[in-house]
């Protein structure tokens, strides 16, 4: 579980996060949604220390990440897996070397053990026979899957995914969503996903947090999201004309005697 | 103020670069890879430029020494000293600043904008040390060999030019390159090379590491890396020459 308590973050005097408090639950897919520029990426990067918060606390279990020194953070980060928006695979390494990279850096496993663990993770994300390929030779969906394999190779307790579906077609996006959801439940980890894809929200959003102009405006489940009265949330959820028509049709059918 | 801010960031980056590595075995492998990337892959260009510059120095010296009072073997001596004192260290340093410096700045800059550096940090790896330290060590270890190669090839190029154009005889040239030889000049050139290697790798890496934005900014940071490396090389040349030869 990750508990965020009253965090503030600004850049050059411009406030991006203001008094944000939220709990991300263990064993669930926690989704942060919001418009571009709402502060969701800053929130996620603050959670993992890629941005320093101005004040507030970020508790991983009982451990306050903000108060930790450099070495303590390094230790904690080994419990964290992260999938970046652009996958962030190392161009100069093959798929296998990318996934094996954290094992090479932080474990004393034998070569055979590392290969076994790497191949297990690649199989888990349904990737086989691509071990020798370089990231430049993979499709967008395959890159995302390799990024997930690398994120879980050290059995993390926390998984962060920044826009896991960006640049993917709806069907591949669904595969990635399902994979993240399955891994979350299988390993019983705390997963935090940053997205503005409403399909993801409706598919896997067990806990949804809506952020608007640096404030948490709404929290709930995917079932509750459609009944919300929050104007900003409704603007976001029903942004497309298609969604508006669906809502109008649903409302009219509900109001019929 | 901007200068102090940039200099401060550079020093902070260096302090991270020279902190204890996570796993020495991995770093050793990286150093070998960088020796190949930055050093071995530069041998071709160093040989090509050195042979031509050695030849040109010899021919220019010959055509500027028309007086019959000056013995021809001094052309060999002039070519040798020019190559040893300045060309093989400083000129090759400036060429490497262009080739290696732009390579380092654009590689690290690309890793920054594609979040690969963030990924390293997220894994608990000191990205500055992991990416930059092997490059600095590789260049500091290997560039002196490039300088020695440049010296040998440059002097050979001068000899080739001398005998193929008939500017002077082979024996005059060979006598000239041995005449009043000061071995300390080689030490002086190698000291300069080591300092230049550090400047090229650390300054270019600095501009790549702190790049923000997209491909355009990576290109700009690469240019800045080369320009500032070159300026610092010339400054270092002045300081080291004053310290070692004055």
Describe the protein's architecture and organization.
The complex is a heterodimer of chains A (257) and B (246). With 257 residues, chain A is α/β, with parallel strands linked by helices. Chain A has a domain at 2-79 and 156-255: 3-Layer(aba) Sandwich (Rossmann fold). Helices cover 41% and strands 24% of the residues of chain A. In chain A, the strands form 2 sheets. Chain A has a 6-stranded mixed sheet with strand order 6-7-8-3-9-10, with helices on both faces. Chain A has a 4-stranded antiparallel sheet with strand order 2-1-4-5, covered by helices on one side. In chain A, a hairpin with a 2-residue loop joins strand 4 and strand 5 (63-64). In chain A, helix 6 (170-187) packs parallel to helix 7 (198-204). The longest helix of chain A has 18 residues, at 170-187. In chain A, 40% of the residues are buried. The model of chain A has no long low-confidence stretch (mean pLDDT 88). Chain B is mainly alpha-helical and 246 residues long. Chain B has one domain. Chain B is built from 9 helices and no strands. In chain B, helix 2 (24-39) runs parallel beside helix 6 (127-165), helix 4 (73-113) crosses helix 7 (170-178) and helix 4 runs antiparallel to helix 9 (215-245). Chain B is elongated, with a radius of gyration of 21 Å. The A-B interface holds A 48-50, 73-75, 77-78, 80, 82, 84-86, 88-91, 101-102, 104-106 and B 22-23, 26, 110-111, 114-116, 118-119, 121-125.
């Amino acid at each position: 579980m990750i508990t965020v308590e009253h965090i503030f973050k600004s850049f050059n005097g411009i406030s991006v996060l203001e008094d944000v408090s939220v709990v991300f639950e263990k064993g669930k897919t926690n989704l942060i949604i919001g418009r571009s520029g709402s502060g969701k990426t800053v929130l996620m990067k603050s959670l993992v220390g890629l941005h320093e918060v101005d004040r507030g606390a970020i508790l991983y279990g009982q451990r306050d990440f903000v108060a930790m020194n450099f070495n303590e953070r390094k230790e904690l980060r080994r419990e964290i897996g992260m999938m970046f928006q652009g996958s962030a695979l190392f161009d100069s390494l093959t798929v296998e070397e990318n996934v094996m990279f954290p094992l090479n850096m932080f474990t004393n496993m034998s070569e055979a053990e590392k290969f076994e663990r790497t191949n297990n993770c690649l199989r888990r994300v349904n990737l086989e026979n691509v071990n020798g390929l370089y990231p430049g030779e993979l499709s967008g969906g395959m890159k995302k899957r390799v990024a997930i394999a690398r994120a879980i190779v050290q059995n993390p307790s926390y998984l962060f995914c920044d826009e896991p579906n960006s640049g993917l077609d709806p069907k591949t996006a669904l595969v990635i969503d399902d994979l993240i959801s399955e891994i979350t439940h299988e390993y019983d980890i705390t997963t935090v996903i940053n997205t503005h894809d409403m399909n993801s929200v409706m598919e896997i959003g067990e806990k949804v947090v809506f952020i608007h102009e640096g404030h948490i405006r709404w929290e709930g489940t995917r079932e509750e999201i459609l009944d919300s009265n929050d104007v900003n949330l409704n603007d976001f959820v029903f942004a497309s004309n298609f969604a508006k028509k669906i809502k109008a049709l649903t409302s009219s059918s509900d109001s019929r005697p | 103020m901007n200068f102090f801010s940039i200099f401060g960031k550079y020093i902070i980056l260096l302090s991270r670069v020279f902190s204890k590595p996570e796993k020495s075995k991995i770093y050793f492998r990286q150093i070998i890879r960088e020796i190949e990337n930055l050093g071995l892959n530069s041998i071709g260009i160093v040989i090509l430029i050195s042979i031509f510059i050695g030849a040109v120095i010899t021919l220019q010296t010959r055509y500027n020494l028309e007086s019959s009072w000056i013995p021809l073997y001094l052309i060999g001596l002039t070519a040798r000293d020019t190559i040893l004192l300045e060309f093989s260290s400083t000129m090759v340093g400036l060429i490497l600043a262009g080739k290696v410096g732009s390579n380092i700045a654009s590689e690290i800059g690309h890793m920054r904008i594609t979040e690969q550096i963030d990924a390293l940090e997220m894994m608990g790896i000191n990205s500055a040390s992991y990416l930059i330290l092997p490059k600095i060590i590789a260049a500091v270890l290997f560039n002196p060999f490039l300088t020695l190669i440049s010296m040998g090839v440059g002097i050979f190029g001068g000899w080739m030019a001398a005998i193929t154009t008939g500017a002077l005889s082979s024996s005059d040239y060979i006598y000239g390159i041995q005449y009043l030889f000061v071995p300390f000049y080689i030490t002086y050139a190698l000291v300069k090379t080591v300092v230049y290697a550090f400047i090229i790798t650390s300054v270019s890496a600095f501009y790549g590491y702190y790049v923000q934005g997209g491909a355009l900014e990576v290109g700009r940071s690469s240019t800045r890396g080369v320009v500032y490396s070159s300026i610092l090389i010339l400054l270092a040349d002045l300081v080291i020459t004053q310290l070692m030869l004055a």
